[in-house]
């Protein structure tokens, strides 16, 4: 299989199986990640968590992201995830949401090196598949990612992704790509950079500026799911083949209509539309109509009126 140094970021409420298949259908993406799953909930047998981990063969390679603050539960959930057949496990050390941080999980891991070491060791030793880590630059301006990246490497983690914002920045303010370069220089294992890549040129710029081994793209892929194909084409010096926005939206709708969990699918489409409809003619009106819809079928009926002019 051809190696593509691009990954689709895990995004709760957005990057479900249908969206990941949409990205695969367009092409150009190396690895996709599931939405994050609670290790505690998984070990308690939560059906919601199991649903989050459902995937289809065509999504591979696929990595499942878990979060938690207790090493035994993280290890046990990693085993469960492995048994479902995913290609890798990612540990979340980036989520800044207070509910998660209060449990000492997500970005809170960055303030406790001992806990990091314990969790990383437990998880790596509990599974055979590769384990990666996704982390913030730091909690505030501490640049903990360099230290935590070293710990990850020592514990046998195979790849780290750095979201170049601190947890206190949440999703606002600019990502500081320099920190990605610093982590890359400090580690031997592959380092992916993440944050504020919304065009193919920016993806190339991040690779060149930081020396990173790859780029992870989040919101840029919601606004433009073809960004991977456009970037891969630039890297491979060929012309990209990207469907029109209208074709992309229709395909996503069709994939969602095929999902068992119709309520979840409708919510995923509403969240997606918030990004995808920006900048298209009558985008605000379309977004509004989608938000007021009660079913995917209703959206399917109103869509042609909005997307017929969009290339
Ligand atoms: C709505 C939303 C949900 C997210 N959920 C997750 C998640 O479950 N796990 C995770 O590691 N990061 C999550 N993120 C962060 C993204 O993976 C990514 O690191 C961040 O958006 C920065 O990249 P971008 O500028 O390319 O979007 C989420 C981001 C958004 C906007």
* CATH fold annotation of the largest domain: TIM Barrel
Strands ordered across the widest β-sheet: 1-2-4-5-6-7-8-9
* Count of DSSP-assigned helices: 15
Number of domains: 2
Average per-residue pLDDT, rounded, comes to 96
Helix content: 40-55%
The largest pleated sheet is described as: 8 strands, parallel, barrel
Which distinct ligands sit in these coordinates?
flavin mononucleotide
Structural class label: alpha/beta
Rg, Cα atoms, Å: 19 Å
End-to-end separation in angstroms reads 31 Å
Q: Give the oligomeric state.
A: single chain
User: What name goes with the CATH superfamily of the largest domain?
Assistant: Aldolase class I
The share of residues in extended strands comes to 5-15%
CATH architecture descriptor text of the largest domain: Alpha-Beta Barrel
Envelope shape? globular
Order of helices and strands: EHEEHHEHEHHEHEHEHEHHHHHH
Question: Spans with pLDDT under 50 lasting ≥5 residues?
Answer: none
Reading off the top of the CATH hierarchy, the class of the largest domain is best stated as Alpha Beta
How many beta-strand elements?
9
């Amino acid at each position: 299989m051809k190696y593509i140094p691009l990954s689709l970021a895990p995004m709760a409420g957005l990057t479900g199986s249908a969206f990941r298949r949409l990205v695969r259908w367009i092409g150009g993406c190396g690895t996709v990640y599931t939405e994050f799953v609670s290790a505690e909930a998984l070990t308690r047998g939560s059906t919601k968590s199991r649903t989050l981990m459902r995937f289809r063969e065509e999504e591979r390679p696929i990595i499942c992201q878990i979060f938690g603050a207790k090493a035994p539960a993280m290890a046990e959930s990693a085993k469960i995830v492995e048994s479902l057949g995913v290609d890798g496990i990612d540990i979340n050390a980036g989520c800044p949401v207070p509910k998660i941080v209060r449990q000492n999980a997500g970005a809170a891991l960055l303030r406790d090196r001992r806990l990091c070491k314990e969790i990383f060791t437990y998880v790596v030793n509990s599974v055979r598949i590769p384990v990666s880590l996704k982390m913030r630059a730091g909690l505030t301006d501490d640049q903990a990612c360099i230290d935590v990246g070293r710990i990850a490497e020592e514990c046998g983690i195979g790849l780290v992704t750095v979201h170049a914002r601190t947890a206190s920045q949440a999703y606002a303010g600019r990502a500081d790509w320099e920190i990605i370069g610093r982590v890359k220089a400090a580690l031997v294992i592959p380092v992916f950079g993440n944050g504020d890549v919304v065009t193919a040129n920016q993806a190339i710029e991040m690779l060149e500026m930081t020396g990173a081994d790859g780029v992870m793209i989040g919101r840029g892929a919601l606004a433009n799911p073809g960004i991977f194909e456009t970037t891969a084409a630039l890297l491979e010096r060929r012309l990209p083949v990207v469907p029109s926005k209208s074709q992309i939206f229709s395909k996503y709708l069709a994939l969602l209509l095929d999902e068992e969990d119709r309520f979840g699918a409708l919510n995923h489409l509403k969240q997606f539309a918030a990004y995808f409809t920006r900048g298209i003619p009558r985008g605000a009106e379309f977004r509004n109509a989608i938000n007021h819809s009660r079913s995917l079928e209703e959206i399917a009926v109103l869509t042609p009126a909005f997307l017929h002019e969009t290339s």
